[in-house]
């Protein structure tokens, strides 16, 4: 998904952003960003605090301008647009926020109507459109409530309805579920998925939680220190993470963690004398349900101990992680066998 792409809803071409500092020097927030967000995708950008996620997102609706390169939305250069051209791009780009940004003085209806009023939509068209949006986000009975009378999840639904009011082609989500509890997060993510599917809307979201990408993103990119260090279809990245930062984010969601009694004894290098190799085996797609450990035992006579494991879903695909220990003398042979059968393996260390 890197590089310029005809099927792209948004493209970042060699984008850099430097902010001036008070002492006259400059801080580089983003450098050499090349990314293309496929039309109709839910694309997630993950990174730690200060990595540059917000700056990247804010370039899509022209709230920040690149100091290098171009950001294209539907083929139009956002950074070069002004006046009516910029307003036209912004109408195509809705945005939702971590803290919802609702007007406390307006009801649910009033908040959702706001972008329509700003766009000069005739009053008689606003009411039915707002009714439709309220219905779409599942808030039918709550139209006359004020934000203070709503839960976090309900507030975010208002934010989503407001972002959809002008029929945008792209929805930007700035940590939209970070202020919500896990259960509410799920319901809001499901709503975003439904909107993506039913309206064909491209969603670009930023998050610091890999679980959000696992649950909704078809494509993802990892950003660190203002640079994209890894990008691709989410499932591929989960299966074969190439960058240490990606692996570190993944270790938080792939569930399988070493039990304490092993983790405390894990040696990076193989010790002298008899030892066990500790490996992570990643199962994906059709292989997720194959009885590979039984086959390892019958075909090669290698017995593996299961230390921990889990199977979950990345998008529609099964995805599993197993942590095993096995005789270090047979480790290379076992890994080669598993890799040959489409599994991914990684040596985590050794125990005596
Ligand atoms: N207006 C600004 N002026 C100066 N520096 C800025 C400005 N906006 C962002 N930065 C700097 O750019 C870098 C990237 O910031 P950004 O807010 O994009 O990161 P982030 O990944 O969104 O972080 P967080 O998750 O904490 O919001 C940081 O070093 C930040 O201090």
Can you walk through the features of this model?
Residues 10-250 form the ABC transporter domain. InterPro entries: AAA+_ATPase, ABC_transporter-like_ATP-bd, ABC_transporter-like_CS, ACT-like_dom_sf, MetN_ABC, MetN_ABC_transporter-like, NIL_domain, P-loop_NTPase. Pfam families: ABC_tran, NIL. Keywords: Amino-acid transport, ATP-binding, Cell membrane, Membrane, Nucleotide-binding, Translocase, Transport. The chain has 352 residues and is of the alpha/beta class. Helices cover 33% and strands 30% of the residues. It has 12 helices and 14 strands. The strands form 3 sheets. A 6-stranded mixed beta sheet has the order 6-7-8-3-9-10, sandwiched between helices. The longest helix has 18 residues, at 182-199. The two termini are 44 Å apart. The model has no long low-confidence stretch (mean pLDDT 91). Bound molecules: adenosine-5'-triphosphate. The site of adenosine-5'-triphosphate (ATP) has 12 residues, from strand 2 and helix 1.
Distance between the termini: 44 Å
Q: State the helicity in percent bands.
A: 25-40%
Q: Radius of gyration over alpha carbons?
A: 24 Å
Largest sheet: 6 strands, mixed
User: Could you say which overall geometry the principal axes of the C-alpha atoms support?
Assistant: elongated
- Overall residue-averaged pLDDT value: 91
Q: What is the number of E strands?
A: 14
Uncertain residue ranges: none
């Amino acid at each position: 998904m890197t590089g310029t792409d005809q099927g792209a809803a948004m493209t970042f071409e060699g984008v850099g952003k430097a902010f001036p500092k008070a002492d006259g020097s400059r801080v580089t927030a983003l450098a050499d960003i090349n990314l293309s967000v496929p039309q109709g995708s839910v694309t997630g950008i993950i990174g730690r605090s200060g990595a540059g996620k917000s700056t990247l997102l804010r370039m899509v609706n022209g709230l920040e301008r690149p100091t290098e390169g171009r950001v294209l939305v539907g083929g139009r250069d956002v950074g070069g647009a002004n006046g009516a051209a910029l307003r036209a791009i912004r109408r195509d780009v809705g945005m939702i926020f971590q803290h919802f940004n609702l007007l406390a003085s307006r009801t649910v209806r009033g908040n959702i109507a706001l972008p329509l009023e700003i766009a000069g939509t005739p009053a008689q068209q606003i009411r039915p459109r707002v009714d439709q949006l309220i219905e779409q986000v599942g808030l039918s009975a709550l139209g006359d409530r004020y934000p203070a009378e709503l839960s976090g999840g309900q507030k975010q639904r208002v934010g989503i309805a407001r972002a959809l009011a002008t029929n945008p082609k792209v929805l930007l989500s700035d940590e939209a579920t970070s202020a919500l509890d896990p259960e509410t997060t799920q319901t809001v993510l499901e709503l975003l998925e439904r909107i993506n599917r039913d309206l064909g809307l491209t969603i670009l979201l930023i998050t610091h939680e890999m679980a959000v990408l696992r649950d909704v993103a078809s494509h993802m990119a990892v950003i660190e220190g203002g640079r994209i260090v890894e990008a691709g279809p989410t499932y591929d990245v989960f299966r074969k993470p190439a960058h240490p930062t990606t692996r570190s984010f993944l270790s938080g969601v792939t569930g399988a963690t070493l039990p304490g009694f092993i983790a405390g004894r894990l040696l990076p290098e193989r010790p002298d004398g008899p030892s066990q190799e500790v490996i992570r085996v990643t199962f994906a797609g059709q292989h997720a349900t194959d009885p590979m450990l039984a086959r390892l035992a019958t075909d090669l006579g290698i017995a593996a101990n299961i230390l921990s494991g889990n199977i979950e879903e990345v998008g529609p695909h099964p995805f599993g992680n197993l942590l095993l220990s096995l005789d270090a003398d047979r480790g290379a042979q076992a890994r080669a066998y598993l890799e040959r059968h489409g599994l991914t393996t990684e040596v985590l260390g050794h125990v005596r």
